[in-house]
């Protein structure tokens, strides 16, 4: 027993020797009228008000002779009496205060006095909607879980936490509804996250890349959102959410391609309007990818497809352009991407000015200098504008990238090249999965019932089943016959 105590004291002494190398580590002894004790903590992690009012004041005002008695005196919920050196290390680095009866004493009392500094809940910035709730997630995992729990006050809501990152020790929570979510999906997420071996995790985007089915795909395979109402809605469908401490974006999976083109505001509007807006988005994305490649393909290989009256305008527009259509299109597309990056990296007001002024000045100057045609300038500008209709930012980046392979194939093989590139893209999407589930569902495999909330948003009364690809334990959302009834109470 003596040998074990000596080893324990030696390990605590080594731990404190490491902590003392940091100037924010505080350790001192205090003599009261009835006992002497030592207190240790990191002053940058501890709330001074909690330390003075909740911990030190009861210690000095009440009589106690042992740590067991002190534990019952202190009005703190998170308090541990331990001899475990690893637990001491963990809790001190989380903002706990350590109280012992000797300098390197064991056991010791660990009292929660965390300093919690977090951004207040604000409006959504990326997924802003005119209609609907105006709350967004913040960087605090506790605040984010609170935003979810107050919208889902049910006992079936399950939250499983763990820490990842050898250096950062980032807290992470996996959230799902027991009895609805498929246990296989939950196990897949838990297993993949548990197997992550990395020094640091600073944002949920790290998790997205490391648990994705295909790391080499430009398509995001987890949906990220900053809206609590969207997370709650998707949890009710049977999906799984992942919250990372320090990140204002929550991951959702498994997901499908069509979900990235559906705005959550669609559910706050009439189903006819929502369906119309979804069709506009899908058309805009297709136009954004194909407009410039089709221009290059037609001018290089298929100019006979252009009507005679319109052909004269093309000839006049390109009469003084010294470069082929491919280089002309590449120059304008590259300019658009430069303006986007410059606007995104600069402060908000300056970025907006750079985007507007830069686009006008460079576009006008390039046409007057004969480097580009005014017709292509209009097409590229419309394609860039169409790409902004994508509701999810990460998918918008993918759409920006896809234009360049299509442009290269159009230059090499014309319209046949565009079809060939589309075949490669379709093959990749057919093979892609999200947490083991088909990424192209309900297109492939075809599922008619899931099409009710894909390209169109049908009335809620018709969406009485949860997505089949999730294999939920409760497939039915509502009774189909009762959902169609619309009777007043006096009928």
Walk me through this protein's architecture.
The chain is of the alpha+beta class. The chain folds into three domains: about 1-110, no CATH class; about 140-255, no CATH class; about 265-440, no CATH class. It has 16 helices and twelve strands. The strands form three sheets. It has a five-stranded antiparallel β-sheet with strand order 1-2-4-5-3, with helices on both faces. It has a five-stranded antiparallel β-sheet with strand order 6-7-9-10-8, with helices on both faces. A two-stranded antiparallel sheet has the order 11-12. The chain is elongated and about 105 Å long.
Layout of SSEs?
Blueprint: H1 2-19, E1 25-31, E2 36-42, H2 48-61, H3 67-73, E3 79-82, H4 85-92, E4 96-100, E5 108-112, H5 141-149, E6 157-164, E7 170-177, H6 183-194, H7 204-211, E8 223-225, H8 228-237, E9 240-244, E10 250-253, H9 271-301, H10 308-317, H11 325-345, H12 348-368, H13 374-387, H14 393-413, H15 415-431, E11 433-434, E12 437-438, H16 480-484
């Amino acid at each position: 027993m003596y040998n074990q105590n000596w080893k324990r004291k030696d390990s605590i002494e080594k731990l404190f020797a490491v902590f003392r190398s940091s100037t924010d580590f505080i350790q001192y002894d205090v003599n009261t009228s009835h006992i002497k004790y030592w207190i240790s903590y990191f002053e940058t992690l501890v709330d001074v008000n909690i330390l003075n009012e909740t911990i030190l004041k009861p210690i000095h005002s009440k009589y106690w002779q042992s740590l067991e008695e002190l534990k019952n005196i202190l009005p703190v919920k998170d308090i541990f009496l331990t001899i475990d050196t690893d637990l001491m290390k963990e809790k001190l680095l989380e903002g706990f205060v350590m109280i012992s009866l000797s300098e390197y004493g064991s056991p010791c009392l660990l009292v929660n006095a965390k300093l919690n500094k977090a951004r207040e809940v604000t409006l959504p910035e990326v997924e802003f909607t005119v209609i609907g709730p105006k709350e967004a997630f913040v960087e605090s995992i506790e605040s984010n879980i609170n935003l979810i729990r107050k919208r889902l006050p049910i006992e079936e809501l399950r939250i499983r936490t763990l820490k990842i990152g050898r250096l950062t020790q980032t807290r992470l929570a996996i959230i799902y509804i027991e009895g609805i979510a498929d246990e296989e999906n939950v196990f897949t997420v838990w297993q993949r996250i548990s197997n992550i071996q990395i020094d640091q995790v600073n944002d949920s985007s790290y998790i997205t890349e490391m648990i994705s089915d295909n790391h080499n795909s430009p398509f995001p395979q987890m949906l990220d959102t900053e809206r609590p109402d969207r997370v709650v809605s998707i949890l009710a469908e049977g999906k799984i959410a992942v919250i990372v401490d320090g990140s204002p974006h929550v991951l959702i999976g498994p997901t499908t391609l069509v979900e990235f083109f559906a705005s959550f505001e669609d559910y706050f509007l009439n189903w006819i309007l929502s369906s119309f807006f979804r069709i506009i988005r899908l058309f805009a994305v297709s136009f954004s990818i194909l407009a410039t490649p089709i221009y290059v393909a037609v001018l290089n290989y298929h100019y006979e497809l252009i009507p005679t009256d319109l052909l004269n305008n093309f000839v006049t527009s390109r009469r003084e352009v010294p470069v082929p259509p491919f280089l002309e299109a590449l120059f304008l597309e590259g300019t658009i991407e430069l303006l986007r990056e410059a606007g995104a990296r600069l402060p908000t007001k300056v970025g907006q000015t750079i985007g507007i002024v830069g686009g006008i000045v460079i576009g006008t100057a390039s046409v007057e200098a004969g480097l580009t045609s005014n017709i292509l300038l209009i097409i590229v500008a419309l394609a860039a504008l169409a790409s902004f209709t994508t509701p999810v930012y990460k998918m918008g980046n993918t759409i920006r990238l896809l234009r360049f392979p299509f442009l290269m194939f159009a230059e090499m093989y014309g319209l046949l090249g565009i079809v060939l590139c589309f075949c490669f893209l379709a093959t990749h999407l057919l093979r892609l999965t999200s947490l083991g589930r088909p990424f192209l569902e309900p297109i492939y495999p075809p599922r008619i019932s899931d099409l009710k909330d894909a390209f169109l948003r049908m009335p809620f009364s018709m969406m009485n089943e949860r997505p089949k690809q999730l294999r939920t334990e409760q497939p039915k959302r509502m009774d189909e016959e009762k959902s169609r009834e619309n009777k007043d109470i006096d009928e």
